Amino acid sequence: MVLIKRKSRKKNNKAGEETVVKEKPRKKKRRKKKILDLDSLAKKLVQDISEYTGMNTLQLPDKLKQKITREILDIVITSTSYKPSTDTILKRISRNRELINMIIAARMLEELNEFTDEQLEFIVYYGKRMIIPEISRLYRILIKKNRKDLISYLQYVWEKYGRPSPVKCPKCGFNAIMPDYTCYICGYTVTESYIREQISFEEKLREFIKEASVAELLEVLEYGFVFVSREGIKTPKSKIDPSKIYYQIYLKPKDKALIKEEISNRKIPV
């Protein structure tokens, strides 16, 4: 309590004072906001969500259904202080069906070791970009199952969501030969001669020789190789776009002879 002195209310008594007792205002206690426990909610709703999303039909293990349900709730529940009804949650799942199907497919591929035909079909047809990190493993599984129909569709998935290369693998048929000459899908390694043939190297080299400056031609001769992509040839010192696939091709004597001939035609001694 605080004691405050103030002047008396009497008109002619300036010296008179009275003591007034003033209490401090009490602070109102704030109610703590309840935070929604998504783990507990996932346990309560796992059966409803599994039935609604088809996880029961896919015969997934209970532990995996629980894990996927928890991940789904992270997507469809935007506030941790408000618990929507089950019907609201299912409606939100419906609106995000494409993403949720991708999650189910990706988690199946990551967690399971054995697959039914129905599970593999769901993974291939609905996994889209989320199965790309495991696409090599998925390809091997489909080979063992002899599911050529799914492999054909998986090629489409790779072309649309993966990192297709300019060179097709002669073993698996995917456009997936990487800069180290190995296939990202099946692991097969090709030769430099195969790369040269597939990307029409000689034609691209002739175009490069016509358009390149003398300095660039001399650079290529000095280093003895070039980088080749779908678009054309880059010199060894050129900046390489990391989003594109380039192959390092070493020059053969006949390639160097063409370059020297071009420089000579420009009347500059080599």
The total strand number stands at 5
Chain-averaged pLDDT: 89
Unreliable runs:
10-16
Approximately how much beta-strand content do the residues carry? 5-15%
Largest sheet at a glance?
A: 3 strands, antiparallel
Helicity level: 40-55%
Assembly type of the chains comes to single chain
User: What's the domain count?
Assistant: 3
In N-to-C order, the SSE pattern is EEHHHHHHHHHHEEEH
Question: How many angstroms does the end-to-end distance come to?
Answer: 100 Å
Strand order of the largest sheet: 4-3-5
Class from helix and strand fractions: mainly alpha
Number of helices: 11
SSE blueprint:
Elements: E1 2-7, E2 17-22, H1 38-53, H2 62-76, H3 86-95, H4 97-111, H5 117-126, H6 135-145, H7 148-161, H8 192-198, H9 201-211, H10 214-223, E3 225-228, E4 233-234, E5 247-250, H11 253-265
Helix pairs in contact: 1-2, 2-4, 4-5, 5-7, 6-7, 9-11, 10-11
Q: What this model shows, in words?
A:
This protein has 270 residues and is mainly alpha-helical. It folds into three domains: 38-161, no CATH class; 164-191, no CATH class; 199-265, no CATH class. Helix content is 49%, strand content 8%. It has eleven helices and five strands, in the order ββααααααααααβββα. The protein has helices spanning 38-53, 62-76, 86-95, 97-111, 117-126, 135-145, 148-161, 192-198, 201-211, 214-223, 253-265, and strands spanning 2-7, 17-22, 225-228, 233-234, 247-250. The protein has a three-stranded antiparallel beta sheet with strand order 4-3-5. A two-stranded antiparallel ribbon has the order 1-2. A hairpin with a 4-residue loop joins strand 3 (225-228) and strand 4 (233-234). It is elongated. The N and C termini lie far apart (100 Å). Residues 14-23 have a biased composition (Basic and acidic residues). Residues 1-13 have a biased composition (Basic residues). Residues 1-28 are annotated as: Disordered.
